[in-house]
Design goal:
single chain, 141 residues, Four Helix Bundle (Hemerythrin (Met), subunit A), 4 helices, elongated
Length: 141
């Protein structure tokens, strides 16, 4: 069983947002597997960089999609995204200062944040898309 499993209730748009979320879930699982096998230190820097870079790209992409859709809660989402990016920055600083527990902290923080953020905040996007589709009969881009 994977450390963090994708679940149907995490689906948002069956498109780019879900694709990003699934990739992040896979990266979290890769990091967790490495740390549980004692390989955390040898792979943590590469995976941390990949996770942080991809997370930032995802957050920007998600915000662009929300803006294009005229999503009404974009600013609140941006605040949540900024707080999360700050958590990642703090973990990177801990790693750079020699902390040996960053790999496990990073996988836990990402797992918890992704799970809660997708199921709560991003679910608003799904509801918004469904309402918009119901009104127009066409799924927005």
């Amino acid at each position: 069983m994977a450390y963090f499993e994708w679940a149907d209730d995490m689906a948002i748009d069956e498109g780019p947002i879900d694709d990003d979320h699934m990739k992040l879930v896979n990266l979290v699982n890769e990091l967790h597997t490495a740390t549980s096998e004692g390989r955390g230190q040898e792979v943590v820097e590469k995976l941390m960089n990949e996770l942080i870079t991809y997370t930032k790209e995802h957050l920007q992409r998600e915000e662009q999609i929300m803006e294009a859709l005229r999503f009404p809660n974009l600013e609140r989402h941006k605040v949540g995204h900024a707080k999360f990016a700050d958590q990642l920055r703090v973990l990177r600083e801990k790693y750079e200062s020699g902390s040996i527990t960053v790999a496990s902290q990073l996988s836990a923080v990402l797992r918890d944040w992704l799970s809660l953020h997708i199921r709560r905040s991003d679910k608003e996007i799904k509801v918004f898309l469904q309402k918009k589709t119901k009104r127009s009969g066409v799924m927005p881009p």
